[in-house]
Amino acid sequence: MSPSTVLAGATAHPLAAGGAGEHRTLIITLFSVFVAITLGITVWAGRQTKDATDFYAGGRSFTGFQNGLAISGDYMSAASFLGIAGAISLFGYDGFLYSIGFLVAWLVALLLVAEPLRNSGRFTMADVLAYRLKQRPVRTAAGTSTIVVSIFYLLAQMVGAGALVALLLGATGEGSRRWIIVLVGLVMVLYVTIGGMKGTTWVQIVKAVLLIAGTLLITVLVLNKFHWNLSTLLGRAAEESGKGRAFLEPGLQYGKDGTSKLNFISLGLALVLGTAGLPHILIRFYTVPTARAARKSVNWAIGIIGAFYLMTIALGFGAAALVGPKAITASNESGNTAAPLLAQEVGGGAGSTGGAILLAVISAVAFATILAVVAGLTLASSASFAHDLWANVIRKGRTSEKEEILTAKCAAVVIGAISIALGIFAHRLNAAALVALAFAVAASANLPTILYSLFWKRFTTRGALWSIYGGLISSVTLVIISPVVSGNPKALFPGLSFDYFPLGNPGLVSIPLGFLLGWAGSLLSKEAPDEQKYAELEVRALTGYGAH
Amino acid sequence: MDSEEAVGTTPSTAEGPDEPVRPAIPAQPGSFTDMQTSTEFGELRRAHRSFAFPLTLAFVSWYLLYVLLSNYAGSFMDTIVVGNINIALVFGLAQFLTTFLIAWWYAKHAEARIDPKAEALKARMEAGE
């Protein structure tokens, strides 16, 4: 394999902070245009938002295709775009697991969750659980886990945003990095408070189209450099990686020893079972009028997301081949900037006009991606706070719709502030690895309860509480005592060392635990399962009778 | 979990929080149980479960097989198929293909076997039978 002749001029340059002037202006312009257009849409959507169904569920007025695009927009986050490209460019084949797991996971949502959830719920994930179980304790638990999962996910997006800013502004940009994270936080709060679900959905749709178009452009340019020969691209990536053929084989990141292999299984399990428990994804099913439309939207999403993840092969291996791991890690230790660096390279390299333009375009797309996803997360968590915790637990159902929506808007401001604070903090971690933690928490705390509620006659409130709190506490605790948080230079707190749990992802322990606790709690309940309520839930979930 | 106690065991009407999720339904309290135990509903349930459950088991196993092979069958996965394309990559791409196929297959199945049954039962309940 010697495709080097093709690539004579394609040596990588780390992005010098000094020569960043021209593309900086361009990025700011493009990004401002995106923000202006989407804020315009948001204001327009806000004018049409009158009641709670508009605010939480976009008036249930979206079509299957529109919602499919919006789901894709919500799902393809900084983790998918920046994180996966980075993971593949540094660890080769092992990074590709993310793409596969993130996609296959959609089948759980399609076959088991989307339609019954749409038929039986109203605004939040907890609506379905509260149906046959005791409302207040179950809503408290589900609301708590919704907010925890969303904050993990938000953290990953903010890490991506931070990495981008550092790339574009260089080491001198520490102050600017903070300001841009504050700006991202502010805009996302505006989207949610002004536009509600309708505005947020349109932002997702615009962003999904931009992201697919941007990724397609880079993919075409990369494959074109290799005469549309995947094998040549892979060969060149292996060569440039310095790892040889091992770069294309499983095991580079996770094959070192027994523990890292277990970590790979843990990650794989969290990815495939997490999606159907992600609150910001689940509430998207409420934006369409029927269960049939919910199914159609998932099918569209699988097509769009699948196509996108196929292109991550070109992005990741392309970055390894054309930019090279040295330049990538010099820019960001976890590879989060591999995709924009690749864009610059295929545009003509650092210093060229084409390179500057493509870098600007892809960076603006990445910012748009982050902004849209954080808006979706903020909406999901503030909706759950207002609808589950405030209206139904604290105020015991004695709120007006107006008060509930106002509470949601206030919650969005608070969650925005939390994510800004977190974003300023963390920047050494890989965005995809961080999101995988959100998946693990969702799969441990949310998925068992959702599945048991929908399909198991003997499920009880105690089962739900044991499962949600058990899954939540075990997964979060295991993350805190994992190598992600302390004990090594790449950790959140590199100076400290309390990494007692060896796996970077808790799924292997906490997911089975969540399922087990739900089962055991139900069997050990003093109360008998409410068969009449289950009959009502099952009939409504399957037939769509009485659906909102 | 102490919040469980806070609510008490018998939800009374005075508590109120039940209202937001359960709208007024014309059906009698027992009618959901009647519907749930009816033959037609049994068929609808079977049409969904007998398709979705085995298929879920199948694709999760197929996916875990891929994860386990990547971990513990390195030399098999490293086998070259053509050029620089090895079995591991083919396996990964096959996961994409099976995901697309299962999604398409379920949509076909649901339209033919689930939707008509669900709609018939829904109409029957709305008619207040």
Automatic annotation (TrEMBL), chain A:
<feature type="transmembrane region" description="Helical">
    <location>
        <begin position="179"/>
        <end position="196"/>
    </location>
</feature>
<keyword id="KW-0769">Symport</keyword>
<feature type="transmembrane region" description="Helical">
    <location>
        <begin position="208"/>
        <end position="226"/>
    </location>
</feature>
<feature type="transmembrane region" description="Helical">
    <location>
        <begin position="67"/>
        <end position="90"/>
    </location>
</feature>
<feature type="transmembrane region" description="Helical">
    <location>
        <begin position="506"/>
        <end position="524"/>
    </location>
</feature>
<feature type="transmembrane region" description="Helical">
    <location>
        <begin position="466"/>
        <end position="486"/>
    </location>
</feature>
<feature type="transmembrane region" description="Helical">
    <location>
        <begin position="432"/>
        <end position="454"/>
    </location>
</feature>
<keyword id="KW-1003">Cell membrane</keyword>
<keyword id="KW-0812">Transmembrane</keyword>
<keyword id="KW-0472">Membrane</keyword>
<dbReference type="GO" id="GO:0006847">
    <property type="term" value="P:plasma membrane acetate transport"/>
</dbReference>
<feature type="transmembrane region" description="Helical">
    <location>
        <begin position="356"/>
        <end position="385"/>
    </location>
</feature>
<dbReference type="Pfam" id="PF00474">
    <property type="entry name" value="SSF"/>
</dbReference>
<feature type="transmembrane region" description="Helical">
    <location>
        <begin position="406"/>
        <end position="426"/>
    </location>
</feature>
<dbReference type="InterPro" id="IPR050277">
    <property type="entry name" value="Sodium:Solute_Symporter"/>
</dbReference>
<feature type="transmembrane region" description="Helical">
    <location>
        <begin position="27"/>
        <end position="46"/>
    </location>
</feature>
<feature type="transmembrane region" description="Helical">
    <location>
        <begin position="141"/>
        <end position="167"/>
    </location>
</feature>
<feature type="transmembrane region" description="Helical">
    <location>
        <begin position="298"/>
        <end position="323"/>
    </location>
</feature>
<protein>
    <submittedName>
        <fullName>Cation acetate symporter</fullName>
    </submittedName>
</protein>
<comment type="similarity">
    <text>Belongs to the sodium:solute symporter (SSF) (TC 2.A.21) family.</text>
</comment>
<feature type="transmembrane region" description="Helical">
    <location>
        <begin position="264"/>
        <end position="286"/>
    </location>
</feature>
<keyword id="KW-0813">Transport</keyword>
From TrEMBL, chain B:
<feature type="transmembrane region" description="Helical">
    <location>
        <begin position="85"/>
        <end position="107"/>
    </location>
</feature>
<feature type="region of interest" description="Disordered">
    <location>
        <begin position="1"/>
        <end position="33"/>
    </location>
</feature>
<dbReference type="InterPro" id="IPR007436">
    <property type="entry name" value="DUF485"/>
</dbReference>
<protein>
    <submittedName>
        <fullName>Membrane protein</fullName>
    </submittedName>
</protein>
<dbReference type="Pfam" id="PF04341">
    <property type="entry name" value="DUF485"/>
</dbReference>
<keyword id="KW-1133">Transmembrane helix</keyword>
<keyword id="KW-0812">Transmembrane</keyword>
<feature type="transmembrane region" description="Helical">
    <location>
        <begin position="51"/>
        <end position="73"/>
    </location>
</feature>
<keyword id="KW-0472">Membrane</keyword>
